[in-house]
Design goal:
The structure is a homodimer.
Chain A: H1 12-41, H2 49-76, H3 80-113, H4 123-145, H5 148-178, H6 183-215
C-alpha cells in the first residue's frame, strides 16, 4: 500500500503510538457526535453535557499530538513515507479538533432547539445523521487499517451529505414560510444540518490525508499537482 | 522577537520565498472577501465571478505551498524556530485555503440573496464585514512583519465578530417571524454572517500560529500545554 521506493525509517512503535493517540481522539469525536445527535433524535437534553466534556479531552489531545509530531520531526528528521505520515498526522489532528468543535456546535444547536417548537426530524435528517456518523467511523477505520479503498468510499459520501443538507434546508425554509412560530426551530435545524455537513467535510479531508500517506498523491482540488515529494 | 536560544539554520531566502507565496495567497483571499462583500453592499452581482476565479488561484497555491513545505522539511531537516516556521506555514496555508472557500460561500450566498427580497444591510452587518476584513488584512500584516502585538490585536477582535454575528442572527429571526416573504433572504443573511464569522476564526488561527513561530508558545485552547518543543 505504500508508494514504491519509499524507505521507512523510524520504528513501528513511533508511528503506532502517534496513531493510537489520534485514534483515541477520534473516538472522543465519534462519541461526541453520537451524544449530540441522539439528544436530538430522542429529545434528551441530559446527553448534551457529554459533547462539552469530550471536547475538553479533544482539545488536550490536539495540543499534545501537535507537540508529539513536532518532537518526532525534530528528533528523527524523517523523509518519504515517514515524513508524509507525520505531516498527515498534523492535518488529521487539526481536522479532528475542528470536528470536536462542530459536535459541540451541534450539541448547542440541539440545546436551543429543545427550548423551541418541535419540528419533525424526518427521513432525510435521520439519513444525514447516519451518513455523517458512518463517514466519521469509517475514516477512522481506514486510518487504523491504512485502507485506501475505504478512504475512497468515505470521499464518495460527501456528495450524498451535501445533497441531503440542501434538501433539509429547502424543507425547513418551507416550514418557516408557512408557520412563523417555527422560525426559531427552523434556524436551529439549518445550523444543525450545516454543522453535521461540515463534520462530513472534515472526514473527507482525513480520507485525502490517508491517501496521501499511502500513495504520496495529493488528490485535493482534483489533484492539481501530482508529483511525489 | 524570536524565543531565546533558538538557532536559525536555513538561509533567509528559503523562508522569505515561502512567506511570499503565503502572502500572495493571502492577497487573493483578501480580494475575494472584498469582492463578495462589496457585491452585497452595492447589490452588484457582476463582482461575484471574482471570488470563484480567485479561489482557483488559492487552491493552486495551497497544493504548491504544501509541497514546498514538505520539500523544505525533507531537504533541510530543520529544528527550533525554522521547524516551527515551516509547521506554522503548513497550518497558515490550510487556513488561507479554507478562507478562500468561505469567501466563495459568501459570494454564492450573496448570489442567492440578490434573487430574493431585499433586506437592510444594517450598521451591525456593515461592522461585521469591516471587522472581518480588518482581521484578514492585519493578520497578513502581522505575518509579514512578524509582529506579535499585531497578532494579539487580531485575536482580540474574535469576540467582537462573534457578538455581531449573534446580533445579526437575532435581528434576522425577528424579520422572518414578522414577514414570511423575507424567509429566503433571512436564511441567506444567516449564512453570509456565519461564513464571515468563520473567516474571522481562521484569521485568529493564523494569529495563533504567528505567536507560535515567534515565541514557541502554543496558546491554543487557553495554552493547555506550554513547554517549548
Amino acid at each position: 500500500m505504500i508508494a514504491g521506493g519509499d524507505v521507512e525509517q523510524f520504528g513501528k512503535t513511533d508511528f503506532e503510538q502517534l496513531k493510537n493517540e489520534l485514534l483515541t481522539m477520534g473516538g472522543y469525536v465519534e462519541k461526541a457526535l453520537e451524544e449530540a445527535t441522539q439528544a436530538l433524535i430522542q429529545r434528551d437534553a441530559s446527553r448534551l453535557e457529554n459533547p462539552e466534556r469530550l471536547e475538553k479531552e479533544i482539545n488536550r489531545s490536539h495540543v499534545l499530538i501537535d507537540k508529539h509530531c513536532l518532537n518526532l520531526l525534530a528528533k528523527l528528521s524523517p523523509f518519504a513515507t515517514d515524513l508524509r505520515r507525520i505531516l498527515a498526522s498534523i492535518k488529521i489532528n487539526s481536522d479532528l479538533e475542528r470536528m470536536g468543535d462542530l459536535a459541540v456546535n451541534v450539541s448547542r444547536n440541539v440545546k436551543f432547539y429543545l427550548t423551541h417548537k418541535e419540528l419533525p426530524v424526518d427521513k432525510d435528517f435521520l439519513l444525514l445523521i447516519s451518513e455523517v456518523r458512518w463517514m466519521v467511523k469509517n475514516v477512522l477505520d481506514a486510518f487504523v487499517s491504512e485502507d485506501e479503498n475505504k478512504a475512497e468510499e468515505v470521499l464518495k459520501r460527501d456528495d450524498v451529505v451535501d445533497s441531503l443538507r440542501h434538501k433539509i434546508n429547502d424543507f425547513v425554509r418551507q416550514i418557516m414560510k408557512q408557520d412563523s412560530t417555527a422560525v426559531d426551530s427552523g434556524v436551529d435545524f439549518i445550523f444543525i444540518a450545516k454543522n453535521l455537513e461540515r463534520m462530513g467535510d472534515h472526514a473527507t479531508n482525513i480520507a485525502e490525508d490517508i491517501i496521501f500517506i499511502l500513495s504520496g498523491d495529493d488528490i485535493r482540488h482534483g489533484g492539481l499537482v501530482n508529483e511525489k515529494p
